[in-house]
Design a protein that fits this description.
D-Maltodextrin-Binding Protein, domain 2; 415 residues; alpha/beta; 14% strand; 15 strands
Amino acid sequence: MLRNSMTLAIAAVLAAPALAQTAQQVEVLHWWTSGGEAAALKVLKSNLEKDGVGWKDSPIAGGGGEQAMTALRARVSAGIPPTAVQMLGFDIHDWAKDGRLANLNDLAAKEGWDTSVPPALQKFSKFNGKWVSVPVNIHSTNWVWANKEVLAKAGVTAEPKTWDEFIAAAEKVQAAGFVAIAHGGQPWQEATVFDGVVLATGGTDFYRKAFVDLDSAALGSATMDKVFQRMSQLRKLVDKDFSGRDWNVASGMVISGKAGFQIMGDWAKGEFVNAKKVPGKDFLCFRVPGSQGTVSFNSDQFAMFLVKGADKVAAQQKLAAAIMDKGFQSAFNVVKGSVPARTDVSDKDFDDCGKRGIKDLAEAAKKNTLVGSIAHGHAVPASIKNAFYDVITRHFNGQIDDKKAVAGMVAAAKQ
């Protein structure tokens, strides 16, 4: 059934009838299909339409983007690449190496991107000194989302500050008859949880040594064994039906009061906002206990593919400029749950969780505790990331024990 669905999805993109051609039009391939994500994307569509640029939407469902990348490869092989494609981390560099992406340096120089975009993001937006992609936001992955009413019913009266306090709180929620931790059993989701657990267990230096430097001693260490012990603790706190669940469905469990906690990136906040929930009143947001002061990040970017024809190039330039507009960066990220990719955007329109995210990011950048997400392609190239995925998800599903998982991570780093 999954293979058939994938085939239909790719076919739909390849065979979609052309929209009535406007003077200028962009086609954008992305995987933002949940309620909060669609609401955020609508901001960009509306801004472009006001600027006289038509929008051809090519959504490919799948929270981690794997299906979208499969569809993209089919499009490029067929010689019909989209104008822009939502992309993460090292995937951008892979396409740039193949010479498939446009050079945006003139626009970047005109609009001052080199001074407004943090260097950690520019690492992925640029290739060989050329801007090839435009960052929409900065997401961070080491967040916990909690239903305030559920916690109160379970007798959890304070935000947990340590790992042990968090586990104790989750056990109280479970004992009260709720799902302790809402989780979707998909490899990228388990790896997202893993981001926070590594930071909470080993700190930033260990995170970098293991998952940036790929140091075998760190990957095979007692600290890594403790990481997997903690993942095993979490496994006991999810419900029996977690396998295959989409991330936004898990968020819905917390929103509706079926579950107490979810460990997920800040895109989850978009689902709470879309459901008219208010931070502090209806739900809580806090860093994975033990990881306070550090931020693991990813950034949704739109990689700009080489297009032919003056109208298409002009439309693409307008799309890139619209994404980097300060007003859009604020409006989009207020809805999406993330924070702006520019450092010169005010936080005045953001809610409490948004302001907290912006503050955390600024402090982490200043203290050098801002690290690329393992789970979302901002720490290691895709081949190694996928090998890590395999170990992490097999462990979470009980197919290998803690010791074998540690050995598996050492082997995975050699891919």
